[in-house]
């Protein structure tokens, strides 16, 4: 897997060295001069795989749209998720998948690019990334909500995704994985005032939720029935 950034070296120096099955990540970067030029087309034609690898600066809508128009469809979608990207602009994998939908890729192709295709690219055995019988039961379940919403790339370009993917359950080796909030951001991560305010609101809402009883008195059952009469209330 080759990571190409501002360089040098640039894509024209690196891509000719890649062989079929090798991977170019940050393929739609607005920082590196990837785009849809001859060197990228030649690499694609001989079997070099394109990976989105969004990250904090490796994804631009206009670059991806030029690639799609040229028939250079990314093989895999990934987040390059780290401390400087998970609070925005990346957020998570479903949001990154929605960005490919906003650029025009069909939903089935986007799902394959996040599951079966990367498993095949990494030559993972045993049906990883599929729902085949006998495959590892690592399963993410999503609700597909037909509600367009705005998504943004690493450079502030906004597009509208046609639907939202909302995780409803995740299983690892067949066992449910409980939802959990991520650790708070390290103090060195450059966040805007709006990002920090949103994190404070989320923490406050969670504390308020967990500070309330789960259900009301009328929704409880007597687990240990009394063996003697209740005293009369005077």
Automatic annotation (TrEMBL):
GO terms for molecular function: deacetylase activity; hydrolase activity. Residues 77-144 form the Amidohydrolase-related domain. It holds the Pfam family Amidohydro_1. InterPro entries: Amidohydro-rel, Deacetylase_Atu3266-like, Metal_Hydrolase. SUPFAM superfamilies: Metallo-dependent hydrolases. This is Amidohydrolase-related domain-containing protein.
């Amino acid at each position: 897997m080759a990571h190409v950034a501002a360089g040098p070296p640039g894509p024209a120096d690196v891509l000719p060295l890649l062989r079929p099955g090798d991977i170019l990540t940050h393929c739609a970067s607005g920082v590196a001069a990837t785009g849809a030029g001859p060197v990228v087309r030649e690499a694609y034609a001989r079997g070099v795989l394109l990976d989105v690898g969004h990250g904090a600066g490796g994804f631009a809508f206009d670059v991806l749209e030029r690639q799609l128009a040229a028939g250079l469809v990314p093989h895999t979608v990934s987040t390059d998720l780290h401390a400087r990207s998970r609070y925005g602009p990346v957020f998570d994998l479903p949001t990154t998948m929605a960005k490919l939908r906003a650029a025009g890729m069909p939903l089935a192709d986007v799902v394959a690019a996040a599951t079966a295709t990367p498993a095949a690219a990494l030559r993972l055995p045993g049906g990883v990334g599929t729902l085949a019988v006998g495959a590892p039961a690592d399963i993410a379940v999503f609700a597909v909500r037909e509600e367009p919403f705005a998504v943004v790339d690493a450079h502030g370009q906004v597009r509208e995704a046609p639907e939202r993917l909302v995780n409803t359950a995740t299983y690892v080796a067949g066992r449910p994985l409980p939802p959990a909030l991520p650790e708070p951001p390290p103090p060195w991560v450059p966040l805007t005032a709006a990002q920090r305010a949103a994190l404070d609101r989320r923490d406050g809402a969670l504390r308020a939720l967990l500070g309330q009883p789960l259900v009301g008195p009328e929704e409880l059952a007597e687990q240990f029935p009394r063996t003697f009469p209740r005293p009369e209330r005077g």
